Amino acid sequence: MTTAKNQTVARAPAAPATRSALASALLNRRLWLGVLGWTLALVIFFPIFWMIVTGFKTEAEAIADPSLIFSPTLENYAEVQSRAGYAKFALNSVVVAFGSTLLALLIAIPAAYSMAFLPTKRTKGTLLWMLSTKMLPPVGVLVPIYLLFRDTGLLDTRTGLVIVYTLMNLPIVVWMLYTFFKDMPKDILEAGRMDGAGTLQEVIYLLLPLTLPGIASTGLLAVILSWNEAFWSLNLTSSQAAPLTAYIASFSSPEGLFWAKLSAASTMAIAPILIFGWLTQKQMVRGLTFGAVK
Amino acid sequence: MSTPATESASRVGARATKAGYRGTKVRRQRVRAAWMFLIPMLITLALVAGWPLARTFYFSFTDASLSDTAGAAWIGIENYLVFDDGNWYGILTDPVWWQSVWNTLFFSVVSVSLEVVFGIIVALLLNAEFKGRMLVRAAVLIPWAIPTIVSAKMWAWMLNDQFGIINHLLMALGLIDSPLAWTADASLSMWAVIMVDVWKTIPFVALLVLAALQMLPKDCYEAAEVDGIHPVKVFFRVTLPLITPALLVAVIFRLLDALRVFDVIYVLTSNSTNTMTMSIYARQQLVEFQDVGYGSAASTLLFLIIALVTILYLYLGRRQLGVDE
């Protein structure tokens, strides 16, 4: 540190750069970084942009030479609904995503509470084991779960998907809640305990209101993960309970041309996430990085 | 009796008994409550992870089919390897299986490496200050948040051999003479799949790296700047070692995801053997060929490979992963 300082002092008078030259160099650098950053964002965003644009073209325009000049039409959106019953799949997605999230939170809150506030020697191990189940290849448990669902009549039902998604998201939900609960000052809970609050009251009146933002962002992540899930929805549902991912994966049209309609359907499938995500950007960043970015 | 030492000792003793009393009854009550709270989660996880896995393991030693699992007969390791009539049979002799093992490893190593390189670049850019940085950050985040099925379909459209915009652009730029069949060509389809996966996953790696970058001490950089050290050298000598723990976390998450990759490939190239991964292979056996015994053997091998990679990785990087915080 001292040598660095000495060098600055020694070098400062010799440096040819005046204050204004230095400032303009800095400005220049910022400009270039800005250009780079924006180019990057455009390149990354382009595929989504192109899909949205295609959704507003007619099928004939979609397969013509790529162009941004066309008269936008909503016919694809209308047709996706009238021919394929888009709303039914969308409803399935909504019910399954929110249902499984609520159920996962209900199971995970007590578990995370106990891990964060009453840690034992095995807490760390339990947490790691729990996260490791997330690494299971789903295909490894596909048949047993399929058979169980077949025998209990859960195949192709929303209840079945809710159960699978709850189980799928549980480790990550517990983990996230655990990191939020651990950040909470313990004194508040202890004060509550002094005032004679039981464990249940402590959780309902103190913990939950105070960590609501954390619980909300965990819930948001669980909703998005369920909304995006494909493996189970493809293998456990067919016509009745299929959510949007299964619908889009099997999207085709008897007339052959379907790119514009597919784009319209896809745009609708990601619209809720884009809007939802835009409004809750900060929580989403934290959720998507499993709590690493605060 | 009234010396200060004994007085304080008796006071301590009184406090200890009081604390001990609280400790035994209330504490025990709380520990019991803790277990009560944990049990629902532990049971559900054991049910979802343990029991089906054990069943898959068992099925892999039987001749079960999807329509008849109850009447499955124990056939030992015949699904894996069997010598019959002068020939070896079983999954371990199936060239398609080995092809899918190779595909999975190739896909995982290449895509995760690319994701780490691009993720670092994007993170460095997002860490710099420029106008509209938050907006750019939001735009970069999007690919990770939308369903893989949708992004794969979207890319299938862009990579379409006849109408896709990628072929149009490349031809307009004069880089290619005739349209390429990105998802059908044996030599291109793996790279197409990798490209889509990299596009989708850059945000995840970038965000983890960004988080690490934002926690770096600023004075190192000021000192380096004052000493006039080239930024590239600063990156390799200062930044990279400091963000290595975050990178290791990102790599393990991504690697485990990549090893069981399913949906990107399923949508883009379906069951083509050029890009078939272990998950696709196992699912095809289980669902399409309804051969539960054989498919379970594939699933079991996939599980063992993933477990092996995880253990190896944790063993090699255990100090840097900071599991003990």
From TrEMBL, chain A:
CDD domains per record: TM_PBP2 (cd06261)
Which GO BP terms sit in this record? Answer: transmembrane transport
List all membrane-crossing ranges: 31-53, 89-115, 127-149, 161-181, 202-227, 258-279
Q: Name one Pfam family in it.
A: BPD_transp_1
Location within or outside the cell:
Cell membrane
Q: Where is the ABC transmembrane type-1 domain?
A: 90-280
Membrane protein topology class: Multi-pass membrane protein
Q: Which domain of life is it from?
A: Bacteria
InterPro entries given in the database record = BP-dep_ABC_trans_perm, MetI-like, MetI-like_sf
Q: Name one GO cellular component term.
A: plasma membrane
Among its keywords, does the record have Transmembrane? Answer: yes
Query: What UniProt keywords apply to this chain's record, in alphabetical order?
Result: Cell membrane, Membrane, Transmembrane, Transmembrane helix, Transport
For the keyword Repeat, the answer is no
**Sorted alphabetically, which PANTHER family does this protein's record hold?**
INNER MEMBRANE ABC TRANSPORTER PERMEASE PROTEIN YCJP, MALTOSE TRANSPORT SYSTEM PERMEASE-RELATED
**Protein family membership:** Belongs to the binding-protein-dependent transport system permease family. MalFG subfamily.
Official protein name in the record: Sorbitol ABC transporter membrane protein /mannitol ABC transporter membrane protein
Automatic annotation (TrEMBL), chain B:
Subcellular location, record wording: Cell membrane
Please list the residue ranges annotated as the ABC transmembrane type-1 domain.
Answer: 101-313
Residue ranges crossing the lipid bilayer per the database entry: 33-54, 105-126, 138-159, 191-214, 234-256, 294-316
Swiss-Prot/TrEMBL keywords: Cell membrane, Membrane, Transmembrane, Transmembrane helix, Transport
Q: Quote the PROSITE patterns the UniProt record gives.
A: ABC_TM1
UniProt cross-references to InterPro entries, sorted A to Z = MetI-like, MetI-like_sf
Alphabetized Pfam families for the sequence: BPD_transp_1 (PF00528)
Domain of life assignment: Bacteria
Q: How does it sit in the membrane?
A: Multi-pass membrane protein
User: A cellular component term (GO) from this record?
Assistant: plasma membrane
Q: Name one GO biological process term.
A: transmembrane transport
Membership in a protein family: Belongs to the binding-protein-dependent transport system permease family.
Q: From the Swiss-Prot or TrEMBL record, give the protein name.
A: Carbohydrate ABC transporter membrane protein 1, CUT1 family
